[in-house]
Amino acid sequence: MAESMHADVLVVGAGPTGSYLGWKLAEAGCDVLLLEALPLEKVGAHIEVIHLDKIRFDEFDIPHPLPPELLHLVSANKVWSIDGSEHFRVEYPFYVTNMPAFVQRLHDYVRHAGGRVIESARVGDVIIDRGFCRGVRGTRRGRPFEARARVTVDASGIAGAVRTRLPDDFGVENCPVPPEQTYYCALELRDEIPAGFPTDNNSFLGMPGFWNKSYGDGAILGIIAPGSKDNAWNALTQWREATFGNPGRLVAKRVGCSPYRRAPASYVGNGFAAVGDCVYQNKAFSGEGITSGFTACRIAEKVIREALAKDDVSQKGLWEYNVRYSRGQGAKFAGVMVFLFPVNGLPKHEVDYLYQHQIIFCQKDYEYLNLNYELDLPPDRWEAICQQLKKGVLDGAFSEQSLQLMNTLYGYSNQLRAHYLAYPATPEGLPGWRTTAERLWGY
Prior knowledge:
Distance between the termini: 44 Å
Order of helices and strands: EHEEHEEEEHEEEEEEEEHEEEHHHHHHH
Largest sheet: 8 strands, mixed
Mean pLDDT: 97
Structural class: alpha/beta
Number of helices: 11
CATH class of the largest domain: Alpha Beta
Oligomer: single chain
Helix content: 25-40%
Strand content: 25-35%
Low-confidence stretches: none
Number of domains: 3
Number of strands: 18
């Protein structure tokens, strides 16, 4: 006989996003059941060391980390020029933390607030009854289980354990993230680093590689690449050997992945909501999705509580989550995503030109982006940027083609942002809004 579990809210995925949402819902008095496919001690071990914005702990009412979870507090990041001869400092503090320890702390908060955390529970099917998601079925340590709830939340990460199993007519995008829209982050943890190599946190213009702090005086060398783990490992090896050789001693290799895809038109359905990487809420400029996922969780937590109190967990009853997220962080991410990634891919000498003239690749813009999740490009500044780029074209330092590309991207960025700011207030407006969004994105 299948094990049977019931709750007000079922959260599938006990990573940082799901655990944070489960904690806040339980703290508010909801009966919360948190399911995790892995043994709890393994959650986060695939990455092991993460860097989290210090400012977000106060923003989301999370106690700041302490050792041994806390490895370092890094006050600034160095961004190196194309030729590596100089750098600017981004004054934006990050905690270097042990990810499994951070997640386990969130699990403790869930339990302390009265929630339940169940490990080794793999989802196999979604329970749909009269158009509503009523929970999930699966196996736990070889035995079947059934978990039912008034609201089911998918927080399972890029796999989308619930979302991808929803019926086609449910009203929520259910396709898996295609390989070409999946970005892999390959990491080497190294120690015994000789003198003369970088210290602290470092990124490099024209290359998606980084050298960050790890345990003690060790370092994490990493790179982000699309398509597959092999692509990421090959890119990391080539970049590391060309730039640093084989510094120190290799301690461990880790790899994670995140989606790079436009947001789905809706995050909610009848009895269902989704948060985090499952619905592509990771930062478009770095790939990290923990703290940006917390933004979605804070909205979802309030909307779910109100829907439960009104006994209306229909798509309409949960719709305000769509509205508040899409008109806020969703609009910002749409504008950044369509603009910044292609600009990062310009020829290196043109990226260097932007850097030399304090355009996007500069301390002020990096700090603004980290703090606000969007670029500071009002029309008057953009006009001044275009004038500078036109000078670059005349001097042969910047191509006319790249100038036109940046102007086109700027226009698309503003169009998309405006479109998300006009997200429909009710489900009835979604079909027309979605059609326009897909046209603007091109898919």
